[in-house]
Amino acid sequence: MKQQWLSRSGTDELILVFGGWALGAAPFAGLSGRGDVLFVDDFRHFDDPLPDIAQYDRVNLIAFSFGVASAGHWLAQTGFRPDRLIAVSGTLCPADPERGIAPDMIRATAENLTAASFSKFCRRAGLNGPVPEIDLEAAQAELHAVIDRGGAPEVAFDRIWIPQRDRIIPTPAQEAAWAHQQSAVRGIATPHVPFRDSQNWQEWIS
Fold it and tell me: What is the DSSP letter of 14?
């Protein structure tokens, strides 16, 4: 996993963000608020430790898109338990025709990935601003890893945000995936990338 500090002022509270596929930290650029923010992505494997989190009195984990399943796998592997666990625009079964995206579609995305197709993906996702730089080979490998790894172990989330205009992970698939955690679900009238400028991190954690 790659790690990037989005905010680090030495507070006693950490927001740990598991990002989505290939978008980097761009979806979160407009968010602000108190607490340090550590962003991780590139989930080809989970061997890289996150040693800095032990120093915090409180850790809230926000998982976005394919980062939701990656967070589930990472939590099962490490045994770590955040104080609050949030899912946004994703499911624990990313390569699933009914509760995520059909594996054949993910495989086709990987096999046909170009700078142009990635730009189209960003537009479909609702990403504002310039298209992030992409390492095509690494991005392809990550998609294959998502398929090979399969669904994550079941974990209870404190809040689950489901966009109602999601063109990446279909809204009905997300609703089906979280039917058994319905009390935590909140629908939002947004595309796949729901974050907007001037929003506060706490809006997503609450």
Answer: E
